[in-house]
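Duplicate of earlier report; Nitronate monooxygenase input re-posted below.
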Amino acid sequence: MRKNRIAEILNIKYPIIQGPMAWLTDAKLVSAVSNAGGLGILGPNAGQYNATTSIIETTERMRNEIRKTKELTDKPFGVVILVDTDMSFTEAILDMVIKEKVEAVLVNGLDNVDYTDTFKKLKDNNIKIIFRPLTPTIANARMAEANGVDIYVATGFDEGGTLPENQIGTFSIVPLIVDSVKNIPIVAAGGIGDVRGVRAAFALGAEGVFLGSRFLTTIEARTAPNIKELIVKSTAEDLDIFRTLPYFYRSIHTKLSTELVEMDKKGATREELAMKQGGGRNMKLGMLDGDTENGYISVGLGISSIKEILSVEDTIKELMQDFID
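Output:
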């Protein structure tokens, strides 16, 4: 087994982290990733089928999903913390995660937000911090290192989900960030779909990989069956990209994504596009409910490498084959 700082820090077998992916995560998927040697992460609305605006209900839902995950694995797993300017949801989830003794937290936030207090609270409670800023920069990488963050995720423009402001591809951003810090290990995210992508990330200085889209097509994932099949059949050439808030988004061709592209071409504002896009609500329609008319399907450019629906265990074995004795 190759020695690896990411695996050692997180107390996992392989340096692979599953992206939180909002509605598409639950105790079943996260525990499967952790049991297979990676780090599973519960995302916003993990295990849910309807939204809530209640801080109390949001917190209790996540608490229940954490406890379900602990029933399915004795391995480390993580929970995402969305750091925003209001901090009301952030603080409630953070306090609950500390009480539930979750081993790791993915701090996944917006640009231009002060993370200092969040980092300190996590460090004071011996929780491992994985920091994934929306837009990776030299400045926020050095800030993370100075504040004692354990792992930094460098996300390239190749990713799915909310895209970074800077249109810098994964295999350009990774060495840029690696060269800008001294001791903090870097994880590569965005467009990694198979072992070739893993090897490329490590060749550029990353010490781990962070994947979302690849796990969407696993047997254990909540993704609608028709969407799993669509992802397998699609490539990067089948993706639409459009402006929205805060920056950009991608989707496999759907009726909604086609309309968004047309609106963008005609000069619609980001606010108008974001309203039409419908945020997490329409992502759930597309990816969890399988509605390709009214929803969108958020994936990264790495879908070109996804050829079949496999179990989480087989997926991780393929991706991490260089770390298996």
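The chain has two domains: 5-221+307-323, 235-298.

Merging into the original ticket.
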